[in-house]
Design a protein that fits this description.
Number of strands: 7
Distance between the termini: 13 Å
Order of helices and strands: HHHEEHEHEEEE
Strand content: 15-25%
CATH class of the largest domain: Alpha Beta
Shape: elongated
Strand order of the largest sheet: 4-7-6-5
Number of domains: 2
CATH architecture of the largest domain: 2-Layer Sandwich
Structural class: alpha/beta
Number of helices: 5
Helix content: 10-25%
CATH superfamily of the largest domain: Fe-S cluster assembly (FSCA)
């Protein structure tokens, strides 16, 4: 789940405003969802030196969109006159589709991308172990007609974090946002 503003943040109007501004920054590869909705935006806080610090985590370590995301975050903060700031890219804990909001999943579906199914973290109480070993999951439902009668055409779709599927009922191809 995406990091949210803490009680202390809501008492700091600059942090509160920064969260609001950054909510509008779209993912450059899927512009119908924000970086906050995808869970890429992890935190907005004051660093020890008082500078506004924005923490982002890539969807995978080689994500080519991260430099664009950092540039878009910087631009949004500058337009809002929320300077000085620094952007910290944090790789641990690794991003997981579990951090996506329910709104993001619905926006993906409406956009024609099947959202990830299931969750990656352990269901055991107190444990949040992320599984990286592929496991059998049911085929995703078609985001256009809702049919569960789909087949994978390719492990990679329009980006590395998506797979290419086809609906066997409506015959339309679609991307599936793979669960990580």
């Amino acid at each position: 789940m995406t990091s949210t503003a803490s009680l202390a943040d809501t008492m700091d109007p600059v942090l509160e405003r920064a969260w609001t501004v950054l909510e509008t920054v779209p993912d450059p590869e899927i512009p119908v969802v924000s970086i906050r909705e995808l869970g890429i935006l992890r935190d907005v806080r004051r660093a020890a030196d008082g500078v506004l610090e924005v923490v982002i985590t890539p969807t995978y370590s080689g994500c080519p969109a991260m430099s664009q995301i950092a540039e878009d975050v910087g631009h949004a903060l500058e337009v809002a006159k929320l300077t000085p700031y620094r952007i910290a890219t944090v790789l641990a804990p690794a991003w997981t589709t579990d951090w996506m909001t329910a709104d993001a999943r619905e926006k993906l579906r409406a956009y024609g991308i099947a959202p990830p199914t299931g969750n990656c973290a352990s269901d055991a109480p107190g444990e949040k172990v992320i599984r990286f070993v592929p496991r059998a999951l049911p085929a995703p439902a078609c985001p256009r007609c809702g049919s569960a009668h789909t087949e994978r055409l390719a492990q990679f779709g329009s980006t590395a974090c998506k797979a290419l599927y086809r609906c066997l009922d409506c015959r339309e191809p679609f991307d599936y946002f793979k669960p990580y």
